[in-house]
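Justification of resources, computational component.

The compute hours requested in this renewal are based largely on the per-chain cost of generating structure records like the one below. Each record pairs the submitted sequence with a full structure-token output. That output is archived, and it is also reused by downstream analysis tasks.
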Amino acid sequence: MRTTLKPAALRALVGKLAGRRVVVTGDLILDAYVRGTVRRISQEAPVPVVTVDGESQALGGAANVAENIRALGGVVRLIGVVGADGAAAEMRQVLDACGLATDGLMVDTQRPTTRKLRIIVQSQQVVRVDREVVMPISSSLRARLAAAVTKELAQAHALVLSDYGKGVFSRELIRLLIAAARRRGLPVLVDPKIEHFYQYVRASVMTPNTNELAGGVGRALKDYAAQLAAGQRVLQRLKLEALLVTRGPDGMLLLEQGREPFSIPTVARTVFDVTGAGDTVISTLALARAAGIAYPAAAMLANCAAGIVVGKLGAVSVTPQELRQAI
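The structure output for this chain reads:
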């Protein structure tokens, strides 16, 4: 029977995250928010009329993973693809404001920057408008991205593949990046998408939620026993070191090669918005593994960090001080 670490021991581990160098690559997303109020229904159609009170932009996808790592004290190199458009300029501005370098952003003139616009009224999201092209990037651009990531691995302690299914990753690129990182003895952490689920062979750890796990194995997983069996099958098939399944209000399930399952209860007091929770999980886990922290303790830190962000609106990051306090 596995035992959890005491809070004091977990808090002591937070300090080890600072200064760890992580390379993040994947699908970049700009999250845009329009906040307003509704006082009437439109005469044109039976829809609410939103009077805008404010607008903002935030980082999403792999960019949000990078920001989470930075906020926790890590040193991050972000490599990804944007379009030649206003959304790309806005993303660079947000990255600059966060203290993240933009020289790893590569421009694809054939596609827009992925942008998700959320209309929020009285803290409730009423509609989301996505602007994106979901298709593979060109082979030449993929080669440039692979070369840039491989170069950055020389100074890194971990690699994160943040797959949102927008076209950056292919079977060949996934295989190349995992092999390059593993040759250097670096942990490779994957936030997967269903279409590539069985292509992350020999990554270190994958962090699917229950829906992604169900989609990967091709059937509904209605209870813990079904999730456990599916997770163990994926762990063996992909030859992973570990699989961390995020189970929403049921917490997390950690599976490791040669060890008994470790179930971690949720720590969230109030779930306000799950946007970006998966990014927070893999960011915290990546820094912990980069610092040499064992999987059970790393997963517990990630669980605490996720419990913080779901209590806030939008994709937000967690500071070391917030994480210690939550523990």
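DSSP finds ten helices and 13 strands in the chain. Residues 7-326 form a domain with the UDP-N-acetylmuramoyl-L-alanine:D-glutamate ligase fold (CATH 3.40.1190.20).
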